[in-house]
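Morning!

This is the sequence you dropped in the shared folder:
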Amino acid sequence: MATFGAAANANTNPNKSYEVTPSPADSISSLSFSPRADILVATSWDNQVRCWEISRSGTSLATAPKASISHDHPVLCSAWKDDGTTVFSGGCDKQAKMWPLLSGGQPVTVAMHDAPIVDMAWIPGMNLLVTGSWDKTLKYWDTRQQTPVHTQQLPDKCYSLSVKHPLLVVGTADRNLIVFNLQNPQTEFKRIVSPLKYQTRCVTAFPDQQGFLVGSIEGRVGVHHLDDSQQNKNFTFKCHRDGNEIYSVNALNFHPVHGTFATAGSDGAFNFWDKDSKQRLKAMSRCSQPIPCSSFNHDGSIYAYASCYDWNKGAENHNPATAKSSIFLHMPQESEVKAKPRVASGRK
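The structure's back. Tokens below.
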């Protein structure tokens, strides 16, 4: 057993990424970068929302813990206001908190559901917070009011949501993908059955609002365009697999500059892709633990990812003595995240 343990430990950071310290005491559920500065927020199963300031000097990084707040139960999701002043967090206490981080203010509860809040987003064009819950609703909140501006019934439990105003995509249980045009948020714009045969794990809207990516527990990603005339561009691809071992795709993040995207999975790997050329740009080495969440910073020069147990094999496979939750920072080279120029083949 000793040699097995040693081998596993040697592989905790195979990509030689920078480790954020101190690391959370339990599994990390979400990572969110400020849209304006290199400030990273992590939520975790130890009921905490933590924040670090990241400074760069050439190719080296340094992190300093800035502040933290607590929920009464595990925290599952986070989001930033577009001006970078305020953090939102939600989770198993069925409420969302607004934390005026930059001003040093105290967090206040701004949203309530009847079940855990699993995902959220700030909508800059509307100055509203949208929260998705296992209570099968989507709620829109003006943070100055105690009641939601609108409650949207969903066909099933919300698993993931993504906003690129005016596009909102929601993935629910039973493989439903519901698309909303936020200029008319009270009506479903489109409801799609996922192109993936297994449970939806994550969704993210295209930067140009013309479609979305969806990832499933079965090591597969779907690329979906909304325009009926673009349906021939839709495709799915396999990833985060190792022979017969198939892992969940846990996170999808578009690069804010190049429009390429990263996938992260329960196999402990993260990869960079270009959907337009259907190419994998870079496959990174597998960490010894799953990657449950990830995030690019505002200019795409830092990719943060968590490495920790994601409970995909249940409590019986969780060993608190060996489990360590880590947050790593990877500085992508341009060749990893910039689409390669297409070579004309001469064929039409």
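Headline: The domain at 27-153 is CATH 2.130.10.10 (Methylamine Dehydrogenase; Chain H).

More detail when I'm at my desk.
O.
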